[in-house]
Design brief:
Largest interface: A-B, 41 and 41 residues
CATH class of chain A: Mainly Alpha
Order of helices and strands of chain A: HHHHEEEEHHE
Number of helices of chain A: 6
Strand content of chain A: 15-25%
Radius of gyration of chain A: 17 Å
Shape of chain A: globular
Number of domains of chain A: 1
Helix content of chain A: 40-55%
Oligomer: homodimer
CATH architecture of chain A: Orthogonal Bundle
Strand order of the largest sheet of chain A: 4-3-5
DNA sequence: TTTGATGCAAAGACTTTGCATGCTT
DNA sequence: AAGCATGCAAAGTCTTTGCATCAAA
């Protein structure tokens, strides 16, 4: 999902975001990993490329980007908030240690395909709400030899 | 889901938890609401019943109870962590303002029934992990007159 | 009795904010 | 040139921890 600088500028313009050096770094850094990093992890990664970037800017930028839907906060059960530049519907696998992985795309699709749109509409109607998205999160832990 | 004191003592014993007054209060308080409160909200509720209970104890107790599976942390996108004493598989609806509601039980069941066990097993096999649970979270916001 | 839980306050982790400066438009 | 973003540090929010005391087993 490596976004070119041109593509990033385009995305930012589409969402009325000023295109600053730091924001490009943050978005490119997030788009270039599958690790769903925390703000601080991302900050440490970016620090090599621009030693002046500040953690506050990383937080501010991630906020700005999630406000317009260019990145998403991924709900990990605990600890620091994690971020993902892949905003397509896909299944997250939360490991006990806090790491979050993507499910393989084909399996994500097959799992999500089972969710009934009819039921979602009924939820909307009965509760008088609008559904904007569904998160499916698989809670898992690495398998030991004993597990079956 | 109102748990009697006897039932609570039984549950605690089953999980090798000391049955203290405070823990009973916390569990009963959580089991008696559908509001998925934060630790602080729960603390404020319980404070009326026992003005001596401390926020730290509420946190410690909620940790102890989730460690043995008697309560669950519910992933709300942001802000303070929320808790639920209903540990059955059910769908959570996260509203934009941070509140979390349960989906009506019949709709929860119908939605979850669509999730393919075969796909879950394939996730386990392919990634070499053990799946312990699935969270399905519906992101929604209250409907305004304009929405359609 | 022994062991673990409580309450308090302090420390810690994570995130946001105020403000002067600098960069994007 | 105007206005928003940045960097820094301070403040804020949420959670955990150390320790003396107390209660459950």
């Amino acid at each position: 999902m490596n976004a070119t600088p041109e593509r990033i500028r385009e995305l930012f313009h589409q969402h009325d975001l000023r295109c600053t050096h730091q924001r490009e770094l943050v978005f490119a850094g997030l788009a270039g990993t599958k690790a769903h990093p925390t703000a601080e992890e991302l900050y440490l990664n970016l620090h090599g490329q621009d030693p002046n970037i500040s953690l506050a800017t990383v937080y501010n930028t991630l906020d700005a980007l999630s406000a317009v839907g260019l990145v998403r906060k991924v709900p990990g059960a605990s600890g620091a908030c994690r971020y993902d530049a892949d905003t397509s519907q896909h299944v997250h696998i939360s490991m006990g240690d806090g790491r979050v992985m993507d499910a393989p795309q084909d399996l994500s699709e097959r799992l999500l395909a089972g969710l009934s749109l009819a039921v979602l509409h009924e939820i909307e109607d009965r509760l008088g709400i609008s559904v904007s998205r569904i998160n499916v999160q698989v809670i898992a832990h690495s398998r030991t030899l004993k597990d079956g």
